[in-house]
Amino acid sequence: MNENIIHKINNLGGNTDAVSKDKNFAENWQNIRFPHHLYDKDWDVYGIDDFYNEHKDLYRSQPEKFYENLLKHYFSDHELPYGQYFFRDWFFTPFKEGTNDQEEFDGLIDEDIVQENVKISKPDFICIFYSYGYPDHFFICTEDPEQSNPTVYSTDHEVYFDEIENEGSLQEFLDRFMTKEEFLDVVKEYLRGKQSK
After folding, report:
1. Which of 10, 15, 69, 156 could form a disulfide with 135 if both were Cys (CB 3.0 to 4.6 A apart)?
2. Where are the beta strands (DSSP E) in 26-164?
């Protein structure tokens, strides 16, 4: 995992203390911890109107406290559908003989479609994020030749691996997410616009 990716993960609030150059990508990914969800830069302020309406007195009297509470709420461990991405680190092994995934998905996933996209025979994957959007699963092939900056692939539970898209390198993929400060800037701009109407 390259230094730019480690730096980006840290900026997004992840902990990379256990990442080591001696480990492969999947081992390192499983050693990363995110204490909260992530929001992409195309996030559409889901739930902000409701949060504002419930706390508008605090917004008017103590705006700093309002924003502190908003960050705690949006970056807490919940599964309310706010358009967030959930950090994941589980393996998906549909082509590995004797695994639960291979038994469950045998005949359901077209290996040719996957290989055409991934360019690796009988690939294993690690899920790195899940979201409520489309697509909703994001994977990296554990055998990706570029272990320092592997390719991210997406699919959706409705078409699980029947449709698979290349989302670019991990570094490019992580660039789509906002830091807490960027998230707060988006909300403040939205609420200022709401107040001026």
Report:
1. 156
2. 85-87, 91-92, 125-131, 137-141, 151-155
